[in-house]
Amino acid sequence: MSDVTAAAPQQDLSEVQDWVTLLKPRVISLVVLTGVVGLLVAPGRLHPILAIAAILCIALGAGASGAINMWYDRDIDAVMRRTQRRPIPAGRIEPGAALAYGVGLAVASVLIMGLATNWVAAGVLALSIAFYVFVYTAWLKRRTSQNIVIGGAAGAFPPVIGWAAVTGDVTLVPMLLFAIIFFWTPPHFWALSLFAHADYAKVGVPMLPVTHGARETRKQVLIYTLVLLPLTLLPSLLGFTGWLYAAAAVLLGVEFLRHAIAVYRDRQDETGRSLTEDRPARKAFRYSLLYLALLFIALAVDKAVLG
């Protein structure tokens, strides 16, 4: 009897963990960070309770998008090695329940954002969810190798949402932050796709390494990185940030460029496949996550210290 009693809480905890997994919590963490920074650097103030509500809505909106994405992609997730253990393909959560969960959270996040802050922020949040679900997941992902380039816009909205929650408008600065994330996304995701290309090829998802080869993907990683780095300096050049952010952008950017060059120069066979198990790509992918987080933290610190 005691064994059964002890097993029940563990089963309940495991089920809760599955519902949390549907929200893609690792993705949410970076989304929330960039949204918080957008909120912090915006001119004006938001009551702390309303600010917390806005951040929660950004997290819920991103999580809802992830849940709907998992519902839509359950067929290919069941085949791809790195996604087979997700709750839906593993049979731990019913697809219909996952869809209802995602849609419910999406609607709630937009309504609460509108009531707690303003409807401009709510509208941008709704746009980000719709873009991820309909434009990236349902339209682009399985149809074009440019899926992550165009669809990556969905992940670039959080700082715009945070800014709009405070100001009620969208101006040049939040759009610059949007552009930084937009151009960061391809080298970040293509680094991942270099060492996960076999999974994508297996299910027919036309990621760049599958359609254009590993060598072209490496070149594109380097090209987008070269475009991204000067873009990160625009907030300082336009007078929005000071030397702290500019110094961080340069230092972080140089390291990002070093990783991109290593990916480009990775030892390859005649087909362009890595002879080093894509170790440079794996390192570049991990660093890209740290890069964006530290870049936005530097932006917030600069505004807090230098005003």
Structure description:
- It is a single chain.
- The chain is mostly helical and 307 residues long.
- The chain has two domains: 16-168, Orthogonal Bundle (Tetracycline Repressor, domain 2); 171-307.
- It contains 14 helices and no strands.
- The chain has helices at 2-21, 25-41, 48-72, 74-77, 95-116, 119-140, 147-151, 158-167, 172-195, 197-203, 208-232, 234-237, 243-264, 279-306.
- The longest helix is centred in the C-terminal third of the chain and has 28 residues, at 279-306.
- The radius of gyration is 20 Å and the shape is globular.
Radius of gyration: 20 Å
User: Unreliable stretches, pLDDT < 50, 5 or more residues?
Assistant: none
Number of beta-strand segments: 0
Task: Identify the CATH class of the largest domain.
Answer: Mainly Alpha
What is the chain-wise order of helices and strands? HHHHHHHHHHHHHH
Helix count equals: 14
Q: The CATH topology of the largest domain is what?
A: Tetracycline Repressor, domain 2
SS strand fraction: under 5%
CATH homology group of the largest domain: UbiA prenyltransferase
Proportion of residues in helical segments = over 70%
Shape: globular
Task: Sketch the major β-sheet.
Answer: none
Pfam families: UbiA
Enzyme class: transferase
Organism: Belnapia rosea
Pathway: Porphyrin-containing compound metabolism; heme O biosynthesis; heme O from protoheme: step 1/1
